[in-house]
Design brief:
Distance between the termini: 12 Å
Radius of gyration: 17 Å
Structural class: alpha/beta
Shape: globular
Helix content: 40-55%
Number of helices: 9
Order of helices and strands: EHHHHHEHEHEHEEH
C-alpha cells in the first residue's frame, strides 16, 4: 500500500485567503497607470508570480511595451509594499476552515509539510497566521526559473522534503497549480470548482472538507 509522507500546500486560497489583499493592491496600482481591472480579470492573476501578474495587467492595458524592465521592477515592488501593509493585520483567525486541523493531524502522523507558493511573502504570512513552525520547508519562488503551471516549484518542494513525488500530494485552488502538480507526477487535490479543477486527482469544494482520513483513503486507493 502506498504511504503518504508529504503534503505540499499552495498558500492563497488553500491556507488563507489573501486574494482580496492582492486584488486591492493590484487594482490601485492599475488605476494609477490608467488601467481598470475588475474581479473577473483578477482571476487570471491567481497562482502566478508578481512579475507575471504585472505583465498581464500591462498587456491588458495595452501598455506592456511602455515600461522598461527597471520600471516594471519598481511597479511590482510598489504593489508589494501596499500588499504588505494590508497583510500585517492578518492573524490566526484568517486561516481557512479545516486547515489548522489538517496541518496538526498530518504532523501527528509524521507527515512532512511544505509550502509551494508563488508568493514571496509566504514565510511572513505563515508567521502572521501562527503556523510557520508546522512547516518543514518553504520553496523560495525567487530561485525558480519558471512559474506555475511549470512543475518546478513542486519538484523543488519534493526535493527539499527529501521524498519522492509518489510519496506526496499537492493541494491547489488554481488551474495552473493543479497542472503544475500533475506535471510533477504528484497526486493532486483541487479546492474549488470541479469545472475549473477537473484535472485534479481529487477535488473538494472548500477547505473545510480537507480531512486527513479522507485524503489518505483517496491517496492510498488511487492507482497513480
Amino acid at each position: 500500500m502506498k504511504k503518504l509522507k508529504g503534503i505540499i500546500f499552495d498558500l492563497d486560497g488553500v491556507i488563507t485567503d489573501s486574494a482580496e489583499y492582492h486584488y486591492v493592491a493590484w487594482k490601485n496600482l492599475a488605476n494609477n497607470l490608467g488601467i481598470d481591472i475588475d474581479r473577473k480579470f483578477n482571476e487570471k492573476l491567481k497562482g502566478i508570480s508578481r512579475e507575471d501578474s504585472l505583465e498581464r495587467i500591462l498587456e491588458y492595458g495595452k501598455v506592456l511595451n511602455d515600461y522598461s524592465d527597471d520600471e516594471k521592477s519598481r511597479l511590482a515592488e510598489q504593489k508589494n509594499e501596499e500588499y504588505l501593509k494590508l497583510i500585517k493585520q492578518m492573524t490566526a483567525d484568517d486561516l481557512l476552515p479545516g486547515i489548522y486541523n489538517l496541518l496538526t493531524d498530518a504532523k501527528a502522523k509524521g507527515i512532512k509539510l511544505a509550502l509551494a507558493s508563488a508568493s514571496k511573502n509566504g514565510p511572513f504570512i505563515l508567521e502572521r497566521l501562527g503556523i510557520e513552525k508546522l512547516f518543514d520547508t518553504i520553496v523560495d519562488p525567487s530561485i525558480l526559473s519558471a512559474g506555475k503551471p511549470d512543475p518546478e516549484i513542486f519538484i523543488r518542494a519534493v526535493q527539499q522534503l527529501d521524498l519522492s513525488p509518489e510519496e506526496c500530494i499537492g493541494i491547489e485552488d488554481a488551474e495552473a497549480g493543479v497542472k503544475a502538480i500533475n506535471a510533477a507526477n504528484i497526486f493532486s487535490i483541487g479546492v474549488g470548482s470541479s469545472d475549473v479543477l477537473h484535472e485534479a486527482n481529487y477535488c473538494l469544494t472548500n477547505t473545510s472538507k480537507l480531512k486527513l482520513d479522507n485524503i489518505l483513503e483517496q491517496f492510498e486507493s488511487t492507482m497513480f
